[in-house]
Design a protein that fits this description.
The complex is a heterodimer of chains A (117) and B (112). Chain A has no helices and eleven strands. Chain A has 117 residues and is mainly β. In chain A, the strands form two sheets. In chain A, strands 2, 4, 5, 6, 9, 10 and 11 form a seven-stranded mixed sheet that branches. In chain A, strands 1-3-8-7 form a four-stranded antiparallel sheet, with no helix packed on it. Chain B is mostly beta strands and 112 residues long. The radius of gyration of chain B is 13 Å and the shape is globular. The chains are: A mainly beta (117), B mainly beta (112).
């Protein structure tokens, strides 16, 4: 079974440019999450999709960030325009629906390292 | 609010040394607790978890016990290997609240 994949693995852009990150969850996983780790600090939640619907977007920092999951499969996270403080590692995770508390693990992708110059 | 605090790194040990990485949490109710590991160049992998008080999670020689009285979930390993060099993240998740709350990560360097 293929794991969560993310593209690109690394992106370097200039302040003011636009960048789009992509996440492909594990096939069949309805739940998809975005997180980011900035400057070696804690990994923070950004948002959660259930299929194509945004279940919780309380962690999105501002309106420069737009996440989509059309069709309930892969997801994109667009940053427009990018600022210096957006630099960090963006992680995607997925999880199937249902299941008991003891089995509901999120499976993480390798992350996209974003550098804004 | 919900938060996780873990010891700052880096932690540098010699091979076969005993490892402890401290993790304490703040949360209402009964969260599930996790340790994730990120090896160089790879993504986060679940290392172990515990879903209720006094549960012990274990995997690959690592152990952590869910201590509600001290709100802790310290990671231990009796004898580390060079291959254990990685960044370790402690995390909590409240049931029915899907998002994880992570600590800042602790980098472990194991020297031969």
């Amino acid at each position: 079974e293929a794991g969560v994949t993310q593209f690109p693995s690394h992106s370097v852009i200039e302040k003011g440019q636009t960048v789009t990150l992509r996440c492909d969850p594990i096939s069949g996983h309805d739940n998809l999450y975005w997180y980011r780790r900035v400057m070696g600090k804690e990994i923070k939640f950004l948002l959660h999709f259930v299929k194509e619907s945004k279940q919780d977007e309380s962690g999105m920092p501002n309106n420069r960030f737009l996440a989509e999951r059309t069709g309930g499969t892969y997801s994109t996270l667009k940053v427009q325009p990018a600022e210096l403080e957006d630099s960090g590692v963006y992680f995607c995770a997925s999880r199937p629906s249902g299941g008991a508390k003891s089995t509901d693990t999120q499976y993480f992708g390798p992350g996209t390292r974003l550098t804004v110059l | 609010g919900n938060s996780v605090t873990q010891m700052e790194g880096p932690v540098t040990l010699s091979e076969e040394a005993f490892l402890t990485i401290n993790c304490t949490y703040t949360a209402t109710g009964y969260p599930s607790l996790f340790w994730y590991v990120q090896y160089p160049g790879e993504g986060l992998q679940l290392l172990l978890k515990a879903t209720k008080a006094d549960d012990k999670g274990s995997n690959k020689g690592f152990e952590a016990t869910y201590r509600k009285e001290t709100t802790s979930f310290h990671l231990e390993k009796g004898s580390v290997q060079v291959s254990d060099s990685a960044v370790y993240f402690c995390a909590l998740r409240k049931y029915n609240f899907n998002k994880f709350y992570f600590g800042s990560g602790t980098k472990l360097n194991v020297k031969p």
